[in-house]
Amino acid sequence: MFWDQESETLNRPALEAHQVKCLRDTVARVAARVPFYAGKLKEAGVGPEKIQAIQDVTRLPFTTGIDLRTIYPDGLLAVDAAETVRLHTSSGTTGKPKALFFSRRDVSNAAELIARSLVMTGITKADVFQNMMSYGLFTGGLVMHYGAEKVGCLVIPSGPGTSERQLMLMQDFGTTAVHILPSYALYFAAFLEQRGIKPGSLKVRKAFVGAEPHTEETRLRIEQALGLDVYNSYGLTEMNGPGVAFECEHKAGMHLWEDNFLMEVINPATGQPLPDGETGELVLTTLKREAMPILRYRTRDITSIIPEPCACGRTHRRIRRITGRSDDMLIIRGVNIFPQQIERVLMQCPQVGRNYLIIVEGLDDLTIQVELTPAGFDGTIENLNALKAQLMDKLKAEIWVRPAIELAAPGSLPVAEGKAKRVLDKRSL
Ligand code: ADP
Ligand code: ZN
Question: What residue ranges define each of the domains in the chain, with the CATH number in brackets?
Answer without folding.
Answer: 1-327 (3.40.50.12780), 330-428 (3.30.300.30)
